[in-house]
Amino acid sequence: MTAASPNNPVDFADLLAFYASAGVDEALEDAPVNRFAEAAPKPAERMPTTTPRESSAPEPPAAPAGFDRRALPDAPAPRPSTSAVPDEAQAALARQLANAAVSLDELRQHMAAFEGCNLKATAKNLVFADGNPQAAVMLVGEAPGRDEDIEGLPFVGRSGRLLDRMLAAIGLDRGSVYIANVIPWRPPGNRTPTPHETEICRPFIERQIELVNPKVLINLGGPSAKTLLNTSEGILRLRGNWRVHTTASGIAIPAMPTLHPAYLLRTPAHKKLAWRDFLEVKAKLRALSSDDLAGN
Ligand code: URA
Questions:
Q1: How far is 137 from 172, CA to CA, in rounded Å?
Q2: Chain CA centroid to CA 187, Å
Q3: Ligand 1 mean position, distance from CA 192 (Å)
Q4: Which of 17, 182, 195, 275 is surrounded by the most beta carbons within 10 Å?
Q5: CA end-to-end span of the chain, whole Å?
Q6: CB of 227 sitting under 6 A from ligand 1
Q7: Is residue 62 part of a domain?
Q8: Does residue 35 fall inside a structural domain?
Q9: For residue 12, is it within any domain?
Q10: 77, exposed or middle or buried, with CB in 10 Å at 0-12, 13-18, 19+?
């Protein structure tokens, strides 16, 4: 047997195929690159920041050429550029824009024009929603992945295909539900959105729910449940129990937290739990429509 060599094109093709099948979709460099700094506006264009402590902090001394700070055992994490860290002013602007939208079209336009979330700088597309805005059921996931970013639609990758099958199992499809995410821009490399990014995007998804005004909300995964149900409980405790999402105008929408399809792909033994949750949703829809028929 010959040893694999990166100089052999056949080995290299095999290596790439292996990476692709393992889900590797980003090429990272040895040294971290501050994309926030690249995407940040030039000093004269910057919005005023509310974090003067950060902006006035002294720069660390310059390192000698070729020196890698990460070689130190307690090397501090690189400080993000202050101009790129969204501050409370951006969250307030997001709230203002979200509340000013009187239709989903307007909300989409306001989100497309919003520059206050750094995730937009690295995403290809705004992933606003898919499905039927008149649907009785709205599902909210966490954030788009690679496929969603490319297509500009939520849940179109592997986990989306599983979600479609879960919906079909209770007689629903994309024509009878509306799907969105807490975060509408893909975090680079599918990293977890920071709490700050979530707070910036929260007003948009809350307004989106309010404008769709579904009869039932399904929270796909812990981040969606925690953000929209005002709880810090873990998803394995939350799932399967009805909660309430209360909109800014005070409308109480029954919400079913359940397991995220991406988690179910990794943990198929838990599919039965999600199945039970979806049966709960089906029963709730039936109860709500018989209430409607009875004029309640
Ligand atoms: N995971 C999510 O939470 N949302 C998507 O749109 C895709 C994957």
A1: 9
A2: 7
A3: 12
A4: 182
A5: 75
A6: no
A7: no
A8: no
A9: no
A10: exposed
Separation between Cα atoms, residue 202 and residue 111, nearest integer Å? 12
Give CA 103 to chain center in angstroms. Answer: 22
Helix (H) or strand (E) holding 226: helix 222-229
Q: Using an 8 Å Cβ cutoff, are 258 and 219 in contact?
A: yes
- Per-residue pLDDT at 293: 74
Q: How remote is the C-alpha of 271 from its chain's centroid?
A: 22
Q: Is 187 in the pocket of ligand 1 (CB under 6 A)?
A: no
Q: What is the DSSP letter of 270?
A: G
Contact 285, 215 (CB under 8 A): yes
User: The domain containing residue 198 runs over which residues?
Assistant: 88-295
Most informative mutation of 148, 151, 177, 186 for ligand 1 (most atoms within 8 A of CB) = 148
Which of 260, 264, 265, 266 should be mutated for ligand 1, with most atoms under 8 A from CB? Answer: 260
Residue 69 pLDDT greater than 70, yes or no: no
- Contact, 240 vs 280, CB < 8 A? yes
Query: So what's the pLDDT on residue 296?
Result: 67
Task: Specify whether the CB–CB gap between 101 and 207 falls below 8 A.
Answer: yes
**Does 81 reside within a domain?**
no
pLDDT in tens, 87-142: 789 999 999 999 999 999 999 999 999 999 999 999 999 999 999 999 999 999 99
Q: How far apart are CA 146 and CA 138, in angstroms?
A: 22
Do residues 231 and 195 lie in contact, with contact meaning Cβ atoms separated by under 8 Å?
no
Structure tokens at 48: 């005023």
**Helices and strands (H and E) in the chain: how many:** 13, 6
Domain tally for the chain?
1
The domain that contains 282 carries what CATH number? 3.40.470.10
